[in-house]
Amino acid sequence: MIGENVKEILNEQINKEFYSAYLYLAMSGYLSEIGLYGFSRWAEIQAREEIDHGMIVFEYLIRQNSRTELKGVETPKLKFGSPQEIFEQIYEHEKTITESINNIAKLTENECDLATRKFIDWYLDEQIEEEDNIHRILKKMKNFGTEKASLYLIDKELGERKYSAHFPTNS
User: Fold this and answer.
1) pLDDT digits (tens, 9 = 90+) for 85-94
2) Is residue 167 part of a domain?
3) pLDDT digits (tens, 9 = 90+) for 1-32
4) CA angle 63, 163, 89 (to 5 degrees)
5) Is residue 165 in a domain?
6) Up-side HSE of residue 140: CA atoms within 13 Å toward CB?
7) Domain of 120: which CATH number?
């Protein structure tokens, strides 16, 4: 059985993942409003992945016979700046999620919860991928500019993203 501290931090992580989904959905809506449908699709798929991430933790707690404690999800802000500013916000947000996952890893080591420590390894790898993907998009915007032609090409590329269920292979 999972200890109380680990249960608490995992329940907090569920909330953070669902908040991330809300944030990406809000961004998707805004990006659609301004006609950047590829950017919007990217953010919508990102929201779906964040829901997957929250559900993975939820199901893990259940499999470990631990209590899930769902809390209210904060409403994200609804006004955003330029696409580059949005992706800078996304990058900063993902860095806070990485920090949160790192804190879970530290806690599970301190509490000698090796099963949860092993479970959280997938999230550590996932966050490296998340930050790298976002950083690459930001680099494109910075290198090629945010003029209409550049945004059009980046929008087209991001619109090609496909959703696939996002779960660890051992879940």
Assistant:
1) 999 999 999 9
2) no
3) 799 999 999 999 999 999 999 999 999 999 99
4) 90
5) no
6) 16
7) 1.20.1260.10
